[in-house]
Design brief:
- The protein is α+β, with helices and mostly antiparallel strands.
- Helices cover about 20% and strands about 30% of the residues.
Length: about 350
């Protein structure tokens, strides 16, 4: 009996030591972004000779789901069972995402969940591939998930992950800044979880007026309080830039005013969509979305047009001096991402 107890103590001590070592290494290697950082720039390989911003811009926002969440996939955090798709299907999804962008031919593209060095996408640098496929575009990238090793799920850990948001633009920005959102998960979960951010690209319009283009990807698996902090941060930032024109797009993980969520959306045990607290933001701008189509699906099961839960969380917010000429959601039946792209055309003339 004494020998058995001794063995148990040794095993328990070893486990505790290894766990403490794992936490220590994770603390040392934790990604700790500054409040503001310059974005990573993938310069245009064939830049346009003329860099002036036109009076009208076509802008697309799309959460591409790291090209790993096609209609065949589930996701373990949404109640599914999958962690990653095959390398072949990931590359196929990325190919179709690229072809959709090429067909729409937008001036600016706001992408969420772009992987540049992640186990789940076989360490494919998606930003670099986009740079090669779209040589006339500058690409600005900001990480919001950077971990040396994510230990969940236990049986098949996500592992190394380096992912973020990107702005693709034909016109070189004067500057591109990553703004750290104040929201944060408690320790030690924070070491392995997303550190959400707003990525902004700044342009000078004819006459000297500034245009701020922003890409946001708000929190998802919280009680709504983190999403509220992020929205308040956005309001404060935009209000402080009085006189600047702006348009913000992205995956808000919150539904806009005027949209009525279903009971399934509000009662899902894994992801509960929240209303966007828009009272402050409405003082300085307007929201635009396409009410005719959902923009995202729940990943508890493979996509089925009749049985899958869907919601509307991808849209734009712009200053009052910008006029939205149209906004539409592309119905791609979630074949290559768990989100649909949303496209708007805006006029910058006052």
């Amino acid at each position: 009996i004494k020998m058995i107890k001794k063995v148990i103590y040794i095993i328990a001590g070893t486990i505790i030591t290894l766990f403490a070592l794992f936490l220590g290494v994770s603390a040392i290697l934790e990604h700790k972004p500054a409040p503001q950082e310059e974005a990573i720039h993938y310069p245009a390989l064939k830049p346009l000779a003329e860099n002036n911003i036109p009076d009208s811009l076509k802008i697309m926002t799309w959460n591409i789901g790291y090209a790993g969440l096609g209609e065949n996939m589930t996701f373990f955090m949404d109640g599914g069972k999958d962690v990653r798709d095959s390398r072949e299907r990931t590359l196929e999804n990325l190919h179709h995402i690229i072809e959709t962008i090429r067909t729409e031919n937008p001036d600016i593209v706001l992408l969420q969940e772009v992987d540049i060095n992640s186990k789940r996408t076989y360490h494919i640098n998606q930003a670099q591939i986009l740079q090669q496929e779209f040589p006339h575009y500058h690409i600005y990238f900001a990480p919001n998930l950077k971990s040396w090793f994510i230990p969940t799920p236990i049986k098949e850990p996500i592992g190394e992950t380096h992912s973020g948001v990107a702005i693709m633009t034909r016109h070189k920005a004067d500057s591109a800044i990553r703004h750290q959102y104040p929201s944060k998960f408690p320790w030690p979960v924070s070491m392995f979880n997303l550190k959400r951010c707003l990525l902004t690209a700044h342009f000078t319009l004819p006459g000297g007026r500034e245009l701020l283009v922003g890409n946001t990807h708000c929190s998802a698996f919280d009680d709504g309080s983190m999403r509220k902090q992020e929205t308040e941060f956005l309001y404060t930032l935009l209000k402080s830039r009085n006189g600047s024109s702006f348009i913000i797009g992205g995956d808000w993980n919150q539904y806009p005013e005027g949209y009525t969520p279903s009971d399934k959306e509000l009662n899902d045990k894994n992801f509960v969509v929240q209303p966007l607290p828009s009272d402050s933001l409405k003082k300085i701008g307007r929201f635009i979305y396409d009410p005719s189509l959902h923009t995202a699906r729940y990943n508890d099961k493979p996509y089925h047009p009749e049985h899958s839960t869907r919601t509307l969380i991808d849209y734009f917010f712009h200053s009052d001096d910008i006029t939205a000429q149209e906004v539409r959601t592309l119905d791609l039946e979630f074949r290559h991402s768990d989100h649909h792209p949303v496209v708007t055309t805006v006029s910058l003339q006052k």
